[in-house]
Design goal:
This protein has 7 helices and 8 strands. It is α/β, with parallel strands linked by helices. The chain folds into 2 domains: 50 residues, Ribonuclease H1, N-terminal domain (Ribonuclease HI, Chain A); 163 residues, Nucleotidyltransferase, domain 5. Helix 4 packs parallel to helix 6.
Length: 221
């Protein structure tokens, strides 16, 4: 089987069939992909083949909104066999809050940002990082809404405190620290990009798999 590692395309990732790959590169200016005969080689190349490091995040919450304490976790995926790959149950990092899918997604983002900030602080970051999520809520809140909320005193349009304010506050602390260092290095601001879920993207699938392992109670990374 041939695997296609799309480094530059509409939805970077690894695809196991040409039609899925073609959708991501056709009519994309500067599209770049490579073919491999193993998924592991393709996934490894995805994170080693370009000037930007790709990180995929996901959250899982079973019975979201239906149960008082649903099984929930998050996943952070860097590449095959990476020691930074993480599967984390929500109860270990967010024990006082009711688990929701949104909190799981945001905690995955917080985990990834904390790793980026640590690498910068330790001077071990060799290139900028781009984070991918299949949650429009996470992408839009990070790239657009959170700055508006902060300027409004963390109030939404109705005047109520923004849901998950506690997580967004931490996220913006990391965002500010990262962007300050990125600017000093001549890099663009940290960004989160939307990746379509369930479109055959193996990297996004691995993040989903890690999130579900976290919901199962596994804790590593």
């Amino acid at each position: 089987m041939v695997y296609y590692a799309v480094v530059e395309g509409f939805n970077p990732g690894v695809y196991d069939n040409w039609p899925a790959c073609a959708v991501e590169i056709n009519r994309y200016n500067g599209a770049y992909y490579e073919e491999f005969y193993s998924a592991e080689e393709a996934l490894d190349f995805l994170n080693q083949g370009g000037p930007v490091e790709y990180v995929f995040i996901d959250g899982a919450c079973r019975g979201n909104g239906m149960y008082e304490t649903p099984e929930a976790g998050y996943g952070v995926y860097y590449g095959p066999y990476s020691h930074r790959n993480a599967a984390v149950p929500l109860w270990t990092v967010d024990p006082d809050m009711r688990p929701t899918n949104q909190r799981a997604e945001l905690l995955a983002l917080t985990h990834a940002l904390a790793n980026i900030e640590l690498d910068l602080r330790n001077n071990s970051a060799e290139r900028p990082v781009r984070i991918f999520s299949d949650s429009q809520y996470v992408v839009k809140s990070f790239n657009e809404w959170s700055e508006i909320w902060r300027n409004n005193g963390w109030k939404n349009k109705s005047g109520f405190t923004v849901t998950n304010f506690d997580l967004f506050w931490n996220i913006l602390v990391y965002k500010d620290l990262i962007n300050q260092e990125y600017e000093a290095r001549g890099w663009y601001d940290i960004e989160i990009c939307y990746v379509r879920g369930h479109c055959g993207n193996l990297a996004n699938y691995q993040a989903d798999r890690l999130a579900n392992r976290g919901a199962d109670g596994e804790d590593f990374g």
